Amino acid sequence: MASGQLTKSSIKAWYEPRAKPPGTPPGIAFPIAWTILYASMGLASHLLVNAYDSAIPGSALKATADLALKMYWGQYALNLLWTPLFFGLRKPVPAFVDISILTPLTCALTYQAAKFDSRTTYLLAPYCAWLTFATYLNGGFWWLNFGPASKKGKDL
Fold first, then answer.
1. How many domains does the chain have?
2. What is the residue range of 133's domain?
3. What parts of the sequence cross the membrane (predicted)?
């Protein structure tokens, strides 16, 4: 709840007044998209855990599921870090580094998880697509407001 208040105040004071890249959706799209994406991520993680728990110890399936779970928790940590970086600290460059690691990690997770449960692809592919778009939005926001396209070029 506190992080939501921090984000809300930062959006109004810092994000809204600044230039946005073309194609930036209206603000209402973000909570709707993230609600759906987090529900899909939760279901995908359930499928990952089930595959891990049901695999024979020492089997290739167990190793594949183990790697997928590690990738899942890695992407989840990066996901949770992005909002405090971007909105809390107002640091679009570190947030861009974060999301630039998060996006390919999540796409690799989607590929890895599909090896033992193809349903995870349908759950995680929209997340990969959204992260790709969010990476563009993050980079575009920096470019227009603090990068070469701006006159300030500071406040990174």
1. 1
2. 34-145
3. 28-52, 120-144
pLDDT digit string, tens, across residues 26-76: 999 999 999 999 999 999 999 999 999 999 999 999 999 999 999 999 999
**Any domain includes 153:** no
127 within some domain: yes
**Assessment of whether the complete model's pTM goes beyond 0.85:** yes
Q: Six-digit token pair at 75? A: 């992407």
Q: Is residue 68 in a domain? A: yes
